[in-house]
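Lesson 9: reading folded outputs for more than one chain in a single document. The general rule is that every protein is listed as its sequence immediately followed by its structure tokens, and records are never interleaved. Here is the first one.
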Amino acid sequence: MRIWTGRAGSGKTTAILREIAALSEKGEGRQILLVPELNSHLMERRLAAATHNHGARTAEVLTFSRLADRVFSEVGGLAQQMLTPAGQLLTLQEAARRVQSGLSAWKGLADKPELLQEALRLIDECKTCAVAPETLFAAAEESEDAVLSEKLSDLAQILTAYERLCEESLPDPRDRLTHLRDRLAESHTLDGAAVYLDGFLGFTAQESAVVDAMLAAGVPLSAAVTCDTDYPEIFLTGCKTVQKLTRMAKHHNQTVERIELGESKVARPAGLAALERESLLPVRTPQESADGVRLYEAASPFDECEHAASYIRRKVRDEGARCRDFVVAARDIEPYSAFLAMAMARYDIPVFLAEKPDLLSRPPMALVTNALEAVRNHFRYEDLFSCLKTGLAGLDWDEIDKLENYVLTWNIRGGAWEREWTEHPDGYGLSIDENAKAQLAELNTLRKRAIAPFSALRGALAGEQPAGDCVRALYAFLLAVDAPQRMIDRAAGHEQAGRLQLADEYRQLWEILVSAMEQFAWVCGDMPLTLDRFAQLFRLVLGEYDVGTIPVSLDRVTCGNIERACTENAKYVILLGVNDGLIPKTPSSTSLLSDMDRDKMDALGVELKAYGEERLLMEQETLYRALACPTDELLLTYHTIDAGGGETRPSYFVNTVRELLPDVPFSTHRTETVRDRLQAERPAVELACAYLSGDRTAAVRAAYDYYKDDERVKNAQAQRRGRGPLSSPHTIDGLYGKSLNLTASRVDTFYSCRFAFFMQYGLKAKPRRVAKFDALSTGTFIHYVLEHALDALGKCEGGAAHADQPTVRKACREAVRQYVAEELGGLENKTARFQYLFRRLVRAVEQILDNVIEELRVSDFAPIDYELDFSRSGDLPPVQCEDGDVSVSLSGKVDRVDGYIKNGRLYLRVMDYKSGKKSFSLSDIWYGLNMQLIIYLYALQQEGLDRYRARLTAELNEIVPAGVLYVPVRDELPDTARDTDEEGLRILRDKALRRSGLLSDDMSLLEAMEHGLEGDGRFIPVSIKTRKGEDEPTLAAKSAVADLAKFGRLARYTQKKLLEMGQALRNGSIEADPRKTDRSYCEWCDFRAACRFDETAGDKVRWLKNIKDKEFWEQLGGDDNAEVDT
């Protein structure tokens, strides 16, 4: 046996390839280059190059797996079906179930899916390290540690049962090398062949046994091992491998020739060469040159990836490098995968991620696992829509969105999926019109399509079913949703979009699913399984698979773990995550066997994989692979804040580099991030746009100067000039209609924020609402009860004012009963909490109704209209305002109109029930808010005479405004002390329910509204005072009153604000101009996410200064309506 040793790049592989090429050229014998799986493709290319593509006649590259295939094809066994990863897990589960009565430490393992995977990894260790059950039984007997003895006994029993099951069904693929060792002597595969071992860091016990069998068969063996015997603590595995090969050769009486090639022969810059040579040594000599090494301190893992992308762009542009010249490596690449993909895409760099994706996160696997969870959890929203949103469950995205909106609105769960949906799509309190019926018809069609496959799956998996039947039911589900064809279509879509690696992955996923189901049925057979158990096991089974990928083109950056990515020299290596705990990686052991257990097992002669301190020493070898990989430059990066926001420290190795290379170039994100973004078009354009936000740093200015004529920058600049105005009359007509039909809520929204109006009433966007009895529903309920109860009481003899208390209660309860039947569909299916809260609300509305009735009993004003509708098909036409080309109409409903007839005049006051805490404010009206009562009052004056002549008396001569009032109808009760009596409660309640608004200053009218006015009115917002020496009472200054002239000016001002709104809409105004008093309108705006308010882009807040009533009337003046200084 010959063993070449030396550091990476010392010429070991070159020596082997030259020898093979020379022998091949002479035609002497056969040569087999045996390499690890990861190196096979690379070594095939290198062998072809070394032999000038003529070596295939006598030389070939094999792996242990390919060698097994070659031998088994000759002696038999090649076609034998093997357990897949799914089969291994299921076989282990069945093995644990069979011996569970004899287990001690791991009792119940078969029923703990979370531990089965750990146990499978332990079985894998036993197989790889050639640890037989007999060895474990013997160690259990010998151990003085009772707990460890139980663990070893349990492991031995499980392993014995596992191997017996494999003999009964399908063999474990991890036994292939053991079978190869046993049958190698029967084969002529290696006759006349010389075998060269290269690329192995070390050999497992199984691989060592195969090598030993080769030696026993007299096969000439040569090996190349990366190690430096002067420093075994750095090259621990390599030195152990040399010792093991030497022992095996001597055991077979073979001589061993050691060929020491010493240090690396690769030409590297001085600093990089010193790093490979000395950085891991216990004693280091500081170097004058740091050429070939760079350090970078990043803010975050994403910043590391972005700097790596920028670094690659610079090298490609400035030095003519190719993407294939770069390797981006990390000790664990998985946390970096998403960041790398994003950063490389931003910088237009093609990459190959040499990592195994998490299959369970892929849509086809999520379809299966979430489908099983959905039927387990009675069609729970999260599970069902996670399944539907894979896009593979039979519905398109628009259909899924429609279903999801309804399901969230009405909290659809369980059996509700299989019943007809009849509730209004927009929630409580809405009548089912033709549009709602059409929506419900469409939704029910989608519901049936969506739920049918899930219902069938649930039925097929009900109770306990044989495992084979469970698998067949799952397969039927996949066919029912047409998953196979959808996966084919998606793969084609990824390929067409240039996502070749993802397309290749999708093509493998269906095969994996089918394989998992076949293995499940094969291994579990007729085993009875509940739905819960099947779902748990099948999820575990899928988790054991992975997808293999290869680069889809040659000129790509390779990214991966150090072990996978650093298998050959690359010009440039970027090592990410040189942080404490990451490099070197903190070792961790399986949860079933602790490091202490393994230490004791070593003493008992049971040797598994390296652990603890030895594993930490092996980390040095892993780091060495990264250091020896680059030939031109090594960039080391670390981050100060991790992805979760926690602080991190650099690895000790960063200080080592600085000590060895004092002049090593060092940069940080503070200086480099902006410069990095100048290296590629997309991030540079983003920098140019930052200039528009006021950033004037040199790099931003440079980006702007270069890209200022770019269409993207121009668009950003146009957006920052302000939103809109919309310039196309056609677009404006499409958004709002040719005629501007307004409502009170639309006017309030416009004067609160024009962009919010555009979103809600132009684009018709609306937030997703959950159907619940919230403040909005409460207000609707109170409105309903007051309207219907007062209407019923008004028909009693003497009207509502003369109804006694029992009659009032009866009318109230009848209105509540009607509402429950019409709007809630009864209370029987409501929760106990809902029923309790609803009963409390009924008590509150009874008190509110009592207060209204008490007011009517002391008033000459009586209700003459409820829910008075101003619209084209309503009681009165909509309010029209015109000025030149601008015309607007205001539609809406008035909660209640009260009237009082005197001397042929009908005095009207408009009443509005307010369930919120809003009170009437002239300041609001100045800013265009809450104007509807004034508008409706004057609309009634102009348009209502005929209506009320017909309804009341033909003797009416005119209608005179008497005022407008907000009636509080909140369901909350005032806070009171425990000892407050009934009269005290009434006073507090009256105070809470006192009206706000604006009334006529005519004392006779005020007396008609509330008889016996003294001091503060109980119901109306006036206060009476009597001056000394005067008999006539007068109105206090705080009274909310105005004369008819002021009412007239107020009406004209509200009409002016409507016309201003109409003109602004016709001009295409959509600015984000949210109002703000003590709170900003943005705080509760539904469209904040779409708006992204930005003052640097022209958006601005309108501060609404509170205007006192006196100032309001002064500024309102005559008809000029002078502006208030705000």
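And here is the second record, again sequence then tokens.
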Amino acid sequence: MRFYRFLILFASISATAVLFPAEERAMDTATFAAPPRAVFPETWFHLIGGNVSREGLTADIDAVAAAGLAGIQLFHGAGGVWPGVTPQIQTLSPSWDGMLEHVADEAKRAGLRFTMQNCPGWAMSGGPWITPDRAMRHLVWSRVDVGAESVEALRLPVPQPSKEEWRDYRDVAVLAFPTPEGDTGGNVAPVAIRSNRPDLPWAKLWAGSEEVPDLRIEPAGVDPVWVEVEFAGPLVLRSAGFPGIERFAMRRNFDPSARIQVRALVESAEGAPTWRTVADREVPRGNWQDRPPQENAWVLALDEQPARVYRFVFHNRKPLALLYLRLSTAARLQDWAGQAGFVLRSLDRSGPPRQSPAAWVRGADVLDLSEHLRPDGTLDWRPREGRWTVVRYGHVNTGVTNTPAPPEATGWECDKLSPLGAEQHFAGYIGRVSAPGGPVDGGRLQGMLIDSWECYTQTWTPAMEAEFATRREYALRRWLPALAGWVIDDPLTTERFLRDWRATISDLLVANYFGRLAELARERGLRLFFEAATGDVTPGDLLEYYQAADVPMCEFWRPNDPHWGGLEAKPFSLAVSAGHIYGKPVIAAEAFTNILLDYSEHPFQFKASADRAFAAGVNHLVLHTYTHNPRLDLVPGTSFGSRIGSPFIRGQTWWQHMPAFTTYLARCQAMLQQGVPVADVLWYVGDDLDQEPRADTPYPSGYKFDLCNQDALLRRISVDEAGRLTTPEGVSWRLLWLPQDSARRLTVPTLQRLRGMLEAGAVVLAERPQQRVDLSGGPAADAAFDQLVSALWGNVPSPSGEALLGRGRLRWGVSLETMLGEIDCGPDVAGVRATEWTHRRVDGENIYFVAADRATPLRANVRFRATGRPELWDAVTGQIHPVPVFARVGGVTSVPLDLPAAGSVFVRFRAETAPVAWQQVERDGTVLLDGMDATRTEAGVPFPVQGLQPGAEEQPWIPQPWPDLTVTPAGLGGKLVAWRDGNYTMRGRGWEPISERVEVRAAQVLNAGWKLQFPSGWDAPSELNLADGVQPWSAHANPAIAAFSGTAVYSTNFTVSSLAGNERAWLDLGRVSEIAEVELNGQILPLAWTAPHQLDVSAALRAGENRLKVHVTNTWFNRLAYEAGLPATQRRTWSINGPVADAPRRLAGLTGPVRLVFGRILAAPTAP
């Protein structure tokens, strides 16, 4: 239980089913107190290897239901044999089908929704039913150079990466073009190497051996690390290849924080040699699959400058690992692999290198020699003159399989660019088990999940050339050399083609994979959950694929993600924005995925992570994860079989307390599924199909945004009579924002839509586009682009300005914050840091969620852009508290909030036109609360726009001082309670002050007569007398007592005189590790699972003697660490990858101090 310390707020977690569609009436108090099952969270449910039993499944499903979870989403992953589990089940066998049917039947009996991951394992969509010709395909090529003088037969090697039959090589085309200047087909090696770090093994980079050098470049200080390479004579380096970002940035894929500068030493007969910079570029953001087996070098394109000596300078704020450095005199497009969609990286738009066109390929010179290829691989063609490069293109099975699945359930990943791949895949797994007569038929299976993209990239499908021609309106074939890095005509033209190429891949993924699987699933009545894909690991539109889902999903990890990227690695904004622009009322998150699992986890640890997801717009959590335990006699069980995943399992010490946690989550989820989200800015991501915007993009505090893609802009966003941008579902925004990165390169349809929206009354902040991003439409489209740019931004570029078109306004050259001010759009929330809140509107009322930081209390007068009478809705207790002190100026209401670390609250504004309240409360002349004090704001640096918080995120213990004032719940009159002696005065604008003298009794410390009882079976005594008062059992000298994990009971008796009619008493437990259930005089009080552990005991307290019991539950960590040092025969627990024997023990039990604190209800009314 909690009380409002004016005001204490508690964490929330996200929502699940559509309980309150947009425009329905706001939630009533009874529903908030006891939310329906439909809005409770769900959990992933993992079967591991052959370790499955019917009795274990029944026990698990009963445990899931008893915990207050609303559904399971089933996976079957790989794993070894667990002790005592025989026989081992074979996935996809008849006995497995029987187990699956048992799960479905038991879930139905327990009232749980049943969803399945769409394939065995969790990545991505594949299995043994996928044939090589329907597998993911990759474009490959081989090269041969030939001169007119050659007389030997020209043999073109088959360009498959390995010789296995399953590669299923198929030819695409044979092309030839005059060999560009400097393009030898190989790399060059220096004859001498110098560096300011001669201790590093630079020579191994060019030694020609297979040995991978251990060459780490630590962050640069005053003097960055550099290496010079010297050649026998002057030459022109035009490109340099570095490792893929995952390895180069040492897994800091999403924020390498490095810049590479290349200088050429220019010699002159007239004077001393000078250094000239030939390249200076940021290392791009990558992704965690930018690595073998599909690693593609990051290629740096250099200005042409003949030189014998080149210097590479590493300006890096984070470590780099230089595994190779490939130097070439051939011209290659800057990061061609990223631009060609072979890997997802942020696009470099800093401009092309200065190179001679002689180093590039003229598109008009490209010859199609496909008909000249003989069956034996020879070519019946010779150039008439000069030297030519001949390239044989084909496609192969990528070799990627669904992982990590049991071996018998592992097979090729399906073709994601062809509907045939999706159809073969669906038929092999979900289609089979859900068909009439299948193990989950008859509606027992209710949903299908596509987990996050983890199958690298796909770059070809048999119908690719036809699809490209249809969608882009020109032929693909002569542009194929650009897909291998060659520059065609010039770099900018090549980049425009590669954008068309990425767009085609994205279109095919959306239609033929996500779209087709969704169609097939809906034919079976299944609800679709999609996790992150394009723009996260594989190139493509950031948002469009989500339109085929019923529930867009993202994910968040704790205590940190595995790639040192914080929310840069796992952003909320993509799924949340997709939900808003595509009309998806439920937005889910895979929640609490853990990379450092050690069984120290407990519900309060998860709270702040959930709050952050909530504040970002997530409204349904799916826990990661519940792992099936086939045995009933082994505790705690395991999560996955590795250190990944938080162990939400029936063997947890705190599993019996899960209902308090899940009920809390359900209240929050129900609140956040009401009505529609409120945001001011629609942030257009551009037409270049880049990565998502950086998490630290400058963005004004106090405003929410949604990302918008081209599909939604063209097909879903309209302009209403008031000039607001709006969706058919009623979500709306004040202005459309195209920052410079988004506006730099656009398409004609986008400009046409912008003009139409402006004419209809929209407000648009957009910088002047510099170039058409695509080649579709040819010269006519180029002319139309130029005309539209001139019509909107004027004939002559200007650094700032505005244009009025129809009823709308176009502005450029000012900041977003300035623009919001110009349209009289003040902050929606002020006084708190940027990402700690969210806002929804339902039935004419405004509902805000506000959260404190994990380690910092929030004490501020929070200003909301809303009117009406505010109330505080506490999702921990289900109680509602009126706000007796607030102030309103114009359309902004200021509410004093006082939240503990990791606290949160809903602030609901009732639709009252003329609310009245006290604006100030003082004690003995000192102001305690002042609703008009605009200087009372949250301390600390605002988070970046996406909420990036690098570093580990364990929940610390933060002592909480006792408040001066609290407010009782509405059911107790919503009165102010004073907790200190003094003269209290309430003031309101235009009202006479009211004063009252208050005297409170001193706090009573309970430090005597304590006993501590342990359950049998764990080597601890049944009872201990605590002569020195409460103390954590982890501090006991007896190792078995210190190692106890579970629930132990502290008890004592105390006396107290009777409470006066206006007196309140609270029990303050001090520090609790981790959960406390208090029993006072036989009455069980609400569970104390969040800090501060303080409970209202006014109703349970008796005059005279009182009997107090505190049931304290800790985690499994200490016992598992203790037993790790015991012989296996003496262990009573079992898990995989638990803590090691010498791990420092965690605090466990009741530290205190325990005390009774007394206060007085003020006689003054709640409002003047």
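What the second record shows: Residues 482 and 488 are 6 Å apart (CA to CA).
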